[in-house]
Amino acid sequence: MTAPKQIIYLPNTETYNLWAPTYDTDGNILQAIDDHQLRQHLLLSTLSSLLSTSPNTLTITDLGAGTGRATLALLSTLSTLLLQSPLSQPLHLQITLLDASTSMLSLARTKISAFTTSIPTLPNLELTTTYHVHDIALPLPRGISKANLLLSTLVLEHLPLSSFFATLVEALKPDGMGVVTNMHSDMGATAVNAAWAAEEREQERSRAATATGAGFVDVQGRKVRAEVDFRHEEGEVESVARGKGLTVGERGEVVVTEGMLGEDDGEGSGRGEGQGDGIRLGLRGRKWVGTKVWVGWVFRRGSEC
């Protein structure tokens, strides 16, 4: 029997600074699913709704932006929509990215700059991006404009629900929308209870928060985990959101299926060619077959909250 990997817990910011160089390429199945669901579902619907009002300005906040995955998905989706239906009047798109990890945010800046120079020019669209190193567990920095749309993807597990949704409400304009995704609580429960995580369970008994497994394997073969992680139940998430005055949209969930596995692409990315509704996970997803692993919502701030 293979000995379990050593597990080390580090402050969240330090964890993500160390994870940054491999974050987008280490074959994490949640990121693959998240990218697909954002591009094919959540962002299509929210951007279509926002553009239907013919705004002059759209303000977007990416809370816990990391390497810019969600913003890149948004820009890609927006580009597709505008190539199909060009703007009839000027639109200023203002995007603010917030993250505590300087390494992650530096990658975001590089990736977004490269993307925006590679796509066709979109008539009538002006894009402004700003980047702030900011601990998202704290109130928003002064001077951040309230947003029509807030993105917060695979971040919720690191924060208490009450403080997260207080920040979401603070960040949004009246009638603004928040796209929020997270590791499903079923995946967190499986990670804590599975036999292959026996050593981790022993360590977890002394921890105040319930670990969901956010982390990576470093070059020494150790599991590096963020110190602050919560396994939020979906019903509790929705209850707290409603308590803050938010309207809760339909919950989207993804269960890993055999069709999502396919074969590995040979490059160690874990992203194979599976036929699971367009989601490609590679063989790394096999241990999660039959498990709900991802959940996402669109929340809307009321005009009075």
Total number of domains: 1
User: Looking at this structure, what is the CATH superfamily?
Assistant: Vaccinia Virus protein VP39
Strand content: 15-25%
What's the main sheet like? 8 strands, mixed
Describe this structure in words.
Helix content is 33%, strand content 24%. Helix 2 (29-51) crosses helix 3 and helix 3 (69-84) packs parallel to helix 4. The protein has helices at residues 12-19, 29-51, 69-84, 102-118, 161-171, 185-193, 198-204, 234-243; strands at residues 7-10, 57-63, 91-99, 125-133, 147-153, 172-183, 215-217, 223-226, 246-248, 252-255, 292-301. The longest helix is centred in the N-terminal third of the chain and has 23 residues, at 29-51. With 305 residues, the protein is α/β, with parallel strands linked by helices. The strands form 2 sheets. Strands 2, 3, 4, 5, 6, 9, 10 and 11 form an 8-stranded mixed β-sheet that branches. A 3-stranded mixed β-sheet has the order 1-8-7, covered by helices on one side. It has one domain (28-185, 232-301): Rossmann fold (3-Layer(aba) Sandwich).
Concise overview:
This protein is an alpha/beta fold and 305 residues long.
Task: Note the topology.
Layout: E1 7-10, H1 12-19, H2 29-51, E2 57-63, H3 69-84, E3 91-99, H4 102-118, E4 125-133, E5 147-153, H5 161-171, E6 172-183, H6 185-193, H7 198-204, E7 215-217, E8 223-226, H8 234-243, E9 246-248, E10 252-255, E11 292-301
Parallel strand pairs: 1-8, 2-3, 2-5, 3-4, 5-6
Antiparallel strand pairs: 6-11, 7-8, 9-11, 10-11
Helix pairs in contact: 2-3, 3-4
